[in-house]
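Quick illustration, no need to memorize.
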Amino acid sequence: MSTTLRTYIQILVRYVRPQWRRAASLSALLFGSIGLQLYNPQVLRHFIDTATAGGEVRALAGAALLFIGVALANQLISVTATCVSENLAWATTNTLREDLALHCLQLDMPFHKSHTPGEMIERIDGDVTALASFFSQFVIHLLGSALLLSGILAVMWRVDWRVGVAMTLYAATSLGAMLAMRTMVVPYWAASRHAAAEFTGFLVERLSGIEDIRANGAVPYVLRRFFELMRERLHRDRRATLVSTLMWFAFIALIAAGMALSFVLSAHLYRAGLISLGTAYVIFHYTQMMGRPFNMLSRQMEVLQKAGAGIERIVRILGLQPAVADGGKARLGAGPLAVEFRDVCFSYDGGEKVLDRVSFHLEPGKVLGLLGRTGSGKTTIARLLSRLYDPDSGQVLVGGVDIRAVPLAELRRRIGVVTQDVQLFQASVRDNLTFFDPGIGDARILEVL
């Protein structure tokens, strides 16, 4: 088993396992539908043979009612399976979105500096949405299609061994051709998803800076870049769709070849008196039914191809680990705390040093103002104090304790940071003031105000 396929299966099992009841219900519904699909043509065969033999009207009416009843039952099962499948898809993908969003929030600032908000929206929502069919239908429909195809071939062998041999060779050839083409479209859909992420990132960034763009006359440039990204996205989407369409045409050609083969074979056997008219029709009908598992297998391959591009990016993000490790168990004392920097050195991404052996001690309850030009390290000191970054060397202490020995949650409960960028969230005034902490009472909020 390839590493990529193993990764797909691991993610599938991880997120579908908690929804095993829904997955089991969906499996039962699909397998029940397969059984009805295999049974109904036999009813039709009986009807045709009875009619050609001059059978009683009552027997024909019974066969017709049975055929209609089985068909209606199959439709009801299909509708129910669709509902269960959609619920399973949303439950699994919402869990993945939650895990992915939480993981991204826990990653270091360098990650978020190198990935735009729009790109992260595309990763957390766009890529995960593309996995909905993969989670809800891939394995079940893949197994169901294989079971339906096996059932059809078994019936063909039972009808006549020559029909069984011909249809088995046809099925093997068609499946081989489909598997040979299955990886063709993956790079194209990966490029399409990448173009979508680039466009979303550009759009979010420009909309957030709309005031500066308009004030400085940059609207024409933004629009030109907008159309360039849209054009690139169009080209990549079109290429991916074209390759997928070519695969669909190949699938249609395979089905047409199978229909022609079954028609010639059943006509030959009927003329030779080896099979009845109803059996000839059943051969043709079952061959036509082969299109369903082939179609489903083709669609699931496309689902796997589209999901593959998203899964690779999701796995890559989930595999990233924050450089700021949270493993400390030390506790900070109560009340005001002293702050101390001891020979702290720091640089962003291994570049020029922003802080070079900086040392100072601030007593509890005292105020320290830092003045300096842009880039002199004022904001960096605040970032190191709240452990958004760790120093390259030296120590940062709060209350006499190295902050790397303190759990991140406790450290950030005791340190408040007001950034130079104003962030107003789409929430109540209370939530914006308390940063979504319901434990802060109204009296305290009014006191601070």
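The two ends are 62 Å apart (CA to CA).
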